[in-house]
Amino acid sequence: MEGVDWMRDAAFTPLCGERATLAADRVYLLADPEKYAVETAAGARTQLLIVHTRPASVTLSVSVAEDAELAVAEIFLAEAFADFSIRQHGQSRCRMTTVELTSANVKYGIDLDGAGARSELDGLFLAGGKEHCEVAVRVNHNVPDCSSRSLVKGVAGGDAKGAFRGLVYVAPDAQRTDAQQTSRNIELTPTARIVTKPQLEIYADDVKCSHGAAVGQLDDDAILYMRQRGLSEVQARRLQLEGFVGAIAAQCGVEAVRDRLYELIVEKLERM
Amino acid sequence: MLSVKNLHASVGDKEILRGIDLEVKAGEVHAIMGPNGSGKSTLASVLAGNGKFTVSEGSVTFCGRDLLSMPIEERARAGLFLGFQYPVEIPGVSMANFMKMAVQEQRRYRGEEPLTASQFLRLMKEKSAVVELDPKLMSRSVNEGFSGGEKKKNEIFQMAVLEPRLAILDETDSGLDIDALRIVATGVTKLHTAENATVVITHYQRLLDYIVPDVVHVLYKGRIIYTGDRTLALKLEKEGYDWLINEYGAC
Prior knowledge:
- The complex is a heterodimer of chains A (272) and B (251).
- Chain A has three helices and 17 strands.
- Chain A is mainly beta and 272 residues long.
- Chain A has one domain.
- Chain A has a nine-stranded parallel sheet with strand order 1-3-5-7-9-11-13-15-17, with helices on one face. An eight-stranded parallel sheet of chain A has the order 2-4-6-8-10-12-14-16, with no helix packed on it.
- In chain B, helix 6 links the parallel strand 9 and strand 10.
- The chains are: A mainly beta (272), B alpha/beta (251).
- The interface between A and B is medium-sized, with 22 and 31 residues.
């Protein structure tokens, strides 16, 4: 695994086999899984780092037990098709950060099955050259009193393509649901293309749901402003892009990987 | 320092500046006044190098150099500062990071050593005091969530940090309450020296109670139709622009 030596850091506890129960307050590492099932112990506070370094078709499932708190960071360094289902029980919290640094196609299905569950998802895809990134997020509010927030950002350069599909589903009796879904995208070139499609499907009446999506270019006014202070155009564009994507790494729930993640993102931006 | 000769500029087919002549010397404060749509902000934008405008005629010399041939950032590094009428919000880019890059780029251009981290911190602290800007704003994104007053103070703060030779302040007074106006204007006055110059673009005389101009110009339909001393601003406040336009505005 060239270039991923950092994963051998003692800070991470590698997972083997096909399934695991996470109980300890530490960072578990799942490297190149294909089919894997993870569950947390009830009330556990734990973290999981998933890294894809070779092309694969992946099926993952995570069950977050009652009162448990799980932070997940998933990093795509190689082209993968991934189907990821997350089931959350009462009062659980799951905070997910996912970053595609190359072509990848990822589907997240999040089921909020116990009252008081909270899901947070931050996603980022960076598509350069002829790469193709897709992210789909479906959040099912199956019971009352759950909240979810997802923010997926995309950047496409060259002739790259990106797509976001989002769906927030609120079941008929899932009252007092609080759901937010946002998609923000930047096309760096006229030939780059990002398609975004957020959707709400609401069958309960006492809910607070919002969604928003935008595809735009870098902000010329901001670039002019920064150049007027002495930054070169290249610096101004880079700074703005780093500002756009940087928060994703900064807010990653797996703290031990934040700096590394930020470096990987910046390295990728340099190649775009 | 700045010599503008017969400057014509347009956006699309529309000519907005129609022959501006302006001489600014070191140590001077100029005020440019005029009714809405007269071309005040366009003049500021063209001098800063905003690509939205096309210069069709005329010349601008800044400290002996042909300003119009210089890219935006080179104008800035050579000591031209524009205080924006509408400072831009840049999400995710911290003030501290942005100012550090600006300071280091400008120092590099002048062949100076980069500032150390502690020198930079000291500079930020010292200069934020000039405009009573809350130092906590340094860790926030550039202008994001700043109040109108904070945004304008931030412009003068950046001017204080960068120490330009020529500062052009485009409607820095607009949208300010009287306290913020006093703070901003006092900041500008504190920064004034015999070696630098300031051009204040304003709609209202009230700013000029605090920043006393040596020269006042009236811009109308893309031309400077009248130039006087500071008493002109007081007269305009009382009598409006009509008398000037009637006498000098025909063309």
